[in-house]
Amino acid sequence: MSTQTRKIEIRKANEALILEAAEKIFAINGYKGTATGDIAREAGIPKANLHYYFKTKSNLYQQVLKRILNDWMAAASTFDTYHEPEEVLRTYVQAKMEFSRQRPFGSRVWAREIMSGAPVLDNFLGTTLTTWLNERVRIIRRWAREEKIKSVDPHALLYMIWATTQHYADFERQISILNGGKELSDRRYRQTTDEVVKLVLGSVGL
Amino acid sequence: MSTQTRKIEIRKANEALILEAAEKIFAINGYKGTATGDIAREAGIPKANLHYYFKTKSNLYQQVLKRILNDWMAAASTFDTYHEPEEVLRTYVQAKMEFSRQRPFGSRVWAREIMSGAPVLDNFLGTTLTTWLNERVRIIRRWAREEKIKSVDPHALLYMIWATTQHYADFERQISILNGGKELSDRRYRQTTDEVVKLVLGSVGL
DNA sequence: GCGTATCTTGACCGTAAGGTCAAGATACCA
DNA sequence: TGGTATCTTGACCTTACGGTCAAGATACGC
Predict the structure, then answer these.
(1) Which nucleotide's C1' is closest to B37 (Cα)?
(2) What residues have CB less than 8 Å from A126, skipping those under 6 apart?
(3) Based on CB atoms within 10 Å of each CB, which residue in A31, A103, B18, B85 is the most buried?
(4) Shortest alpha-carbon distance between residue B18 and chain A (Å)
(5) Strand D nucleotides, any atom under 7 Å to a protein CB
(6) Strand C closer than 7 A to residue B100 Cβ
(7) How many CB pairs under 8 A join A and B?
(8) What's the average model confidence in pLDDT over A102-112?
(9) Cβ(B110)–Cβ(A21) under 8 Å?
(10) Which residues of A touch B155 (CB under 8 A)?
C-alpha cells in the first residue's frame, strides 16, 4: 500500500458501506421518512461519521439514486444484445427479473422516488430514459411491421415488462405472504422468471 | 335536519375531508415522511382540529388504508361477474385500470405500505387476500385444464395484472414525463386500457 | 519518532413534528 | 333564551432530527 492508497481505500469502503445502508433504509421509509441516524445505525457507525462522508441527506440520497440508475441502465442495455424479438424480450425480462432479485431495495427506492413526483430523477426521465424508450418503441414497431410479433402498443408492452418485473422487488413482502409466509426460493424464482418470460412472449403472440 | 343529524353530518364531512387529504399526502411522502400538519394544511384546517377527529397519525393512516381496501376489493369482485376467461380477464383488467385512474393516491399508499414491510396490511394479506388469490388461482387452473387458455402459472398471471394496472397509478409521473411531459388524456387512457387488455389476453393465448 | 492530513465521535444547536390543552365558538334541545 | 354537547383553534410541551463542532485518534511521508 503506497502513498494515499490506504486512505482512499478507507474512504471508498466507508462510502460503499453507507450507500448500501442508505439504499435499504430509503427503500423502507422513503426519503422524508428516513433519518440519517437510522442509516448510520444500519451501517454501524455514528451519525457524525456519516455526515463526514456525505454532507447532507439530500446529497446521500442523490448518490444512492445514481448507483441505482447505473445498474438499471446496465439491465436496459441487454435489450440490444440480440436481434430477434423472442431472444431480445427473453433476455431483457430475465435481466430485469435478475435485477429485482439482486437489488430489491434499489428498485423500491426508484419506485418511491417516482411516487414522490420524481424530484431528483425528473431530469433523467426526460432525457436519457425518454431517448432509450423511444428507440425501443421504434424497434418494437418494426417487429410488428415485419410481422415478427403481433401488433401491440410498444409503450404498453414496455410498461408491462417494467411493472411486472419490478413487482417482484417492490411487492416482495406481499408475494411472500401470499406464498404462505415464506420468500420465494431461488429455484421457485427461476421458474417464475420463466413463467414471466412466457407470459410476455405470449402477449406479443410468440 | 333533526336531532343530531346535523352534527353527525359535520363530523362525517370533516372526516371525509381529512381522509381525502391524508390519502394524498401519505401517497406522496409515505407514512413516516408525512407530517400531520401537512395533511391539515392540505385539508385547509388547523392541525389541532385534525387531531380532534383522528387521535393519532397511526389511527388516521389505518383508516386511510381501510378505505382503499374496500375499493380494492370492489374491483376484485368484478372477477366473478362473468365465467368465460376472456370476459373475466377483460372486465377485471378494466376495473383495475379504472381504479388506477380514479384513485391513484390510494394505489400509491398501498404500494408504499407493502414496500415498508406491510406493517398494517400484514393481516389482511395473510387472510382475506390469500383466500381470494387461492380461489382465483384455482379458477385459472381450471381454465387451463379445460384448454380454454394456454397453460400458465396463475400466480405469475395475476401478479402481472396487478403490477401492470397499478403501474399506471404508481408510476403516473414517470409515464407523464415519458409521454412528453403531459398526462395521458382520458381518450389515450381508454386506448391504453384496451391495449393492456389485449396484452393480458394474448399472454394466455386468447 | 514527528508533523500533517484524514478520520472518528460525543456533545450540542435550532427547527420541526406529534400530540395536548384550555378557552372560546357553534349548534341543538327544552 | 339558557344549558349542554360538540367543534374549533392558538399556544404549548416533549421528542426527534438534520447538521455542526471541536477534541481526540489514526495513518502516512519524512
Answers:
(1) C17
(2) B177, B181
(3) B18
(4) 20
(5) 6-11, 16-22, 27-29
(6) no
(7) 165
(8) 98
(9) no
(10) 178, 192
Is B96:B166 a contact under the CB 8 Å cutoff?
A: yes
Q: Alpha-carbon distance B153 to B156, whole Å? A: 5
Q: How far is A197 from chain B (nearest CA, A)?
A: 10
CB contact under 8 A, B29 and A33: yes
What band does B5 get if pLDDT is binned at 50, 70 and 90?
low
pLDDT tens for B45-77 read 999 999 999 999 999 999 999 999 999 999 999
- Interatomic CA–C1' length for residue A26 and nucleotide C12, angstroms: 27
The answer to whether the CB of A160 falls within 8 A of the CB of B196 is yes
CB B189 within 8 A of CB B101: yes
How much is the pLDDT for B6? 58
Which has the closest alpha carbon to B164: A163, A75, A170?
A163
| CA separation, residue B12 to residues A150, B62, B190 (Å) | 51, 17, 34
Q: Tell me how far apart the alpha carbons of residues B29 and B141 are, in angstroms, rounded to a whole number.
A: 40
What was the pLDDT predicted at A2? 36
Question: How does B143-160 read in b/e, with b if 16+ C-beta sit within 10 Å?
Answer: bbeeeebbebbbbbbbbb
Å from A55 (CA) to C3 (C1')? 28
B11 touches strand C (CB under 7 A): no
Residue with cell string 446521500: A60
Q: Are B196 and B95 in contact (CB under 8 A)?
A: no
CA-nearest of B165, B164, B191, B189 to B176 is B189
* pLDDT band at B198; cut points 50, 70, 90: very high
